[in-house]
Amino acid sequence: MENAIEEKNRTHEEKKKRRKPTIWICITALFMGMNIAFSSFGIPVPGGHLYLCDLVICLAAILLDPFAAFLVGGVGSFLGDLIFYPAPMFVSLVTHGLQAVVISVFSHYVLKRRPVISAVLGCVVGGIIMVVGYTIGKAYIYSTPEYAIIKLPYEIAQAAVGIIFGPLLCFKCGIKKVFIALTKK
C-alpha cells in the first residue's frame, strides 16, 4: 500500500516536471506570435506608422525569463520583419532582443521587493536601448542619418507605448496573476 502511494507521488512529480517546459514553450510561442502580428502592421500616423510590438515585448519580458524574452523580442521581431519588411530584420533581432533581455533581467533580478518599480525601470532602459539601436541601425542600413532622425519621433512613441502599457497590462489588468497561476501548477 505504501509503495503504491510513493509510486503515485513520484508519477505526479514527473508529470509536473514535464509540464513546465511545455508551458514555457507554449507561452513563449504565444508571445512570439503576438509580436510577429503586432510588428507586421502599424497604425498610420502623419509621416509614418506607429507599431505596437513594444507593448508585447515589454509585457512578455516582464513575465518571462531572459532567454524566453530574447526569443519573443529578438526572434519574434526578426521573423516579423523577415515576412513583411526584411531590410531592418537584423537590427530588430539585436535591438529588440537586447531590449527584452534587459527588461527581463530588471524584472526578475533588480529590486525584488518592488516588482512594479523594477519592471518600469527595465522598460525605460529597454525603451532607450530600442530607440538608440533603431536610430543607429537605420542610419547604417539606409546610409543616411537624416532618415533615422526623421523616424526618431516614431521610435520614441513606440517605446513610450511599451513603457506605459506593458507594465499596466501586467500588473493592473491581472495578467501577472494569471501567468503565475498557469506556471505554478
Instruction: Indicate how many domains the architecture comprises.
Output: 1
Question: What is the approximate shape?
Answer: elongated
* Estimated helix fraction: over 70%
Rg, alpha carbons? 19 Å
The stretches of 5 or more residues where confidence is low (pLDDT under 50) are none
Q: What count of helical segments does DSSP give?
A: 7
Oligomeric form of this entry?
single chain
What is the string of SSEs from the N terminus onward?
A: HEEHHHHHH
CATH topology: Arp2/3 complex 21 kDa subunit ARPC3
CATH class descriptor: Mainly Alpha
Description:
The protein contains seven helices and two strands, in the order H-E-E-H-H-H-H-H-H. The two termini are 27 Å apart.
Features:
185 residues, elongated, single chain, Arp2/3 complex 21 kDa subunit ARPC3, two-stranded antiparallel ribbon, 2 strands, mainly alpha
Q: How is this structure best summarized?
A:
By secondary structure, the protein is mainly alpha-helical. It contains seven helices and two strands, in the order H-E-E-H-H-H-H-H-H.
Outline the fold blueprint.
Blueprint: H1 2-40, E1 43-45, E2 48-50, H2 53-63, H3 66-84, H4 89-109, H5 115-141, H6 145-172, H7 175-184
Antiparallel strand pairs: 1-2
Helix pairs in contact: 1-2, 1-3, 2-3, 2-4, 2-6, 3-4, 4-5, 5-6
